[in-house]
Amino acid sequence: MNVSARRAPVPLRPGLSEQSGYHSPQVEVEVRLNTNESPLGPPDSWRAQLAAAVADMAFHRYPDRRAWALRRALAAVHGVHPEEVFCANGSNEVLQCLLLAYGGPQRQVAVFEPTYALHRHIAELTGTGVVGAWRTPQFALDLPAVDALLAEADPVITFLCSPNNPTGMAEPPDVVQHVLEGAPGLVVVDEAYGQFSAWGAMDLRRSGASGLERLVVVRTFSKTWAMAACRLGYLVAEPEVVRACELTALPYHLDALTQAAGVLALRHEDDMRERLSLIVEERQRLAGALASLAVESWPSQANFILFRPTQRSAVEVWKDLLDQSVLVRDCSTWPGLPGCLRVTVGTPEENSRFLEALRNSLGDER
Ligand SMILES: *Cc1c(COP(=O)(O)O)cnc(C)c1O
After folding, report:
1. What is the CATH number of the domain that holds 277?
2. Which of ligand 1's atoms lies nearest the C-alpha of 223?
3. pTM above 0.90, yes or no
4. pLDDT digits (tens, 9 = 90+) for 235-267
5. Does residue 160 share a domain with residue 203?
């Protein structure tokens, strides 16, 4: 083929060329504490049951399009009806379905920065406008700023993230209630780390509070369930929201393997709770240790802690840790987080390695 005859590349869809994609750099290290996964895998009995289910699986047939067994099992866990549950490939696909259903040109969603970058990113990919307001310097929602934004921008979806990634704090019930009362559209509470926190918006659904018909709670199996490789997330909302998401999901989007993995995981809730308490305990230990070092850190109700070295630059500390084969997330270039790093809570051994590496980088005392 004559190379010089190649025509110019086809231009991307308008707006897409400015997108840089979502990346989390992966480096080979001994202690990987950068992506908020569970440091421990799911239990052996789950693996054995999944292997048995796979052995019997009707691979020549399409999966159950409605994922009914999984939705029934999730509905039972949350005390809702299966018609109020929608499942997809990770909570990111749940968010994408919501945005395809309710977003689009001439519509806007609201986010409160700093927060999970994918809310903005997926909105932009679906051609939806994004308006934002800043959190307070301590990363709480700034309610006057929230109210002003909601009144001015009329967002079709208001995103909350609780506990908020990457800052770690959960929104208190009265704050979620306040947003629910003031938001003109849906209020989507991303609870990827919900089980690590003492309270979640999922609890609000049982409270009979006002505005509940517009509450959408999103959860994932990627973190607390130790199943990030599976790609499984879900939402709990009014049946009309579920039907809207079903309109925008591709047919048979959720494969039979993932559905089975989810159903079986829910039979191992005790193992999940065990991992959870270990991680919460370790989070307290890390938080206590950070308090004695030359860093500022923020209280976390998730499985990670945001911190800012006070005497050295974040990038230098990040490199020092990497030199000791410990990988944390460098958030210092993210909006509103200058100088910040985020560490995922790992196993006790991994956390000790992290603390030792950090002490080597910063010195012992604040
Ligand atoms: C990790 C994370 C998710 C998980 O996304 P999946 O697609 O379910 O893996 C969702 N939301 C937030 C805020 C997260 O940090």
Report:
1. 3.90.1150.10
2. 1
3. yes
4. 999 999 999 999 999 999 999 999 999 999 999
5. yes
pLDDT exceeds cutoff 70 at 366: no
Q: How far apart are CA 103 and CA 100, in angstroms?
A: 6
Task: Render pLDDT for 101-116 as a digit per residue (tens, 0 to 9).
Answer: 999 999 999 999 999 9
Considering its fold, how many domains does the chain have in total?
2
In whole angstroms, give the CA distance from residue 110 to residue 160.
9
Instruction: Identify the residues whose C-beta falls under 6 Å from ligand 1.
Output: 36, 90-92, 116, 161, 165, 190, 192, 220, 222-223, 228, 233
Last residue of a domain, one of 226, 244, 268: 268
Cα–Cα distance for residue pair 264/56, rounded to 1 Å: 14
Is the domain of 202 the same as that of 221? yes
Q: How far apart are CA 283 and CA 301, in angstroms?
A: 9
Q: Please tell me the distance between residue 233's alpha carbon and the centre of ligand 1 in angstroms.
A: 8
Boundaries of domain holding 298: 24-42+270-362
Domain annotation covers residue 221: yes
pLDDT at position 317 over 90: yes
- Cα distance between residue 261 and residue 322, in whole Å: 34
Q: What is the C-alpha to C-alpha distance for residues 311 and 194, in angstroms, rounded to an integer?
A: 33
Q: Are residues 239 and 103 part of one domain?
A: yes
